[in-house]
UniProtKB/TrEMBL annotation:
Source taxon at top rank: Bacteria
Keywords assigned: Membrane, Transmembrane, Transmembrane helix
Keyword GTP-binding: no
Keyword Hydrolase: no
Name assigned to this protein: Multidrug resistance efflux transporter family protein
InterPro entries found in the cross-reference section: EmrE
Transmembrane stretches, start-end: 31-50, 70-92, 98-120, 132-152, 158-177, 198-220, 232-253, 290-308
């Protein structure tokens, strides 16, 4: 149950991203700066945290083991996750982005066949390819249906341009984040903790953020003081606190694709938290009864998924593993 609780708290802090990105976009801030500033601020904050834990040397040694893997999967997990999210904020409201982002509930489950686990057998070691946990996908689909209901009445009034540029980038992000996270867990194999992994991925993704910042400086000029301050808040609450909590949760269940999918499903609660934040801070319209029905489905689906994930599995093979 602990991974689920950590995932829920992570979703609360992740929701800050959608609310503040919407706020910065309303104020005229460029998505290029919203994306890059978050990771620039994360570096010193995480260096301080990992340094105080005396784990910097171990992290840098781990990164030296396979720098190419770190660069590639950090770009996928952070770059192809957050840049599309902030880009979408220029074309769609925060509630729509938060709702679309919940596709990650099922996208994470569909990534399972890309990963293997090594098992000891009578004839020696064997690699087991994970299979899609269809029962978990079904539980996730309950939450996804709830999210669709929440957004249904709003979607009818959205122009085609907003649907394309506001939704398609988020779909890319919904696959990139769990893929990058899982691949880095595979590369590190438990040798470093969540704090170290977040810092390492942030450092490895810096070349991408520097390029975005250069483009931003040459196209829209420097960011405003308001955008800088709000980006700092996103870095603290979402970039550091939420990401570390989420990585801690996924680390605890990294060997079980069913439980991993359940932890990733906790991110569905971001819709509720983001909606509350936008009502409070941005004074958006109060949701209708249809939207509240959708929220109820999200909560029910989350409870069902959580209970299912607590059931022990006798082996990876029983959960759908295939020896290859």
């Amino acid at each position: 149950m602990r991974p689920i609780i950590l995932g829920v708290f992570a979703s609360l802090f992740f929701a800050v991203t959608f609310v503040l990105n919407a706020s910065m976009e309303e104020a005229g801030g460029s998505w290029l700066w919203s994306a890059s500033l978050r990771y620039f601020f994360m570096v010193p904050l995480l260096l301080l945290l990992v340094g105080l834990r005396r784990n910097l040397c171990a992290l840098f040694m781990e990164m030296k083991r396979d720098p190419v893997q770190w660069l590639v999967w950090s770009f996928v997990g952070f770059g192809l996750f957050y840049a599309p999210i902030t880009f979408a904020a220029a074309y769609a409201p925060g509630w729509l982005i938060a709702g679309t982002w919940q596709v990650t509930i099922v996208s994470g489950a569909f990534l399972a066949p890309l990963f293997f686990t090594t098992l000891e057998t009578k004839s020696g070691q064997a690699k087991v390819r994970h299979k899609i946990a269809w029962r978990g996908v079904a539980f996730s689909s309950v939450m996804l249906l709830g999210i669709v209901l929440m957004q249904l009445e709003h979607a009818e009034t959205i122009p085609t341009k907003q649907l394309v540029f506001g939704l398609f980038p988020v779909l890319i992000a919904s696959f990139s984040y769990p893929l990058g996270n899982r691949k880095m867990m595979e590369v590190c194999d438990g040798r470093i903790d969540a704090y170290q992994r977040v810092l390492g991925m942030t450092i490895a993704s810096l070349p991408f953020w520097v390029v975005l910042a250069i483009v931003g400086a040459n196209t829209v000029g420097p960011p405003s003081l308001s955008q800088v301050s709000q980006s700092f808040l996103v870095a603290v609450f979402s970039g550091v606190i939420a990401t570390v909590l989420f990585f801690m949760a996924t680390d605890l269940v990294r060997g079980d694709m069913t439980k991993l999918a359940a932890v990733e499903a906790t991110q569905s609660l971001e819709v509720l938290f983001a909606l509350g934040g936008e009502i409070w801070l941005l004074s958006i319209a109060f949701p209708s009864s249809l939207a509240w029905g959708g929220m109820l489905l999200v909560v029910v689906g989350m409870i069902i998924h959580s209970n299912y994930s607590r059931k022990p599995l006798n082996s990876i093979a029983k959960s759908g593993g295939e020896i290859v």
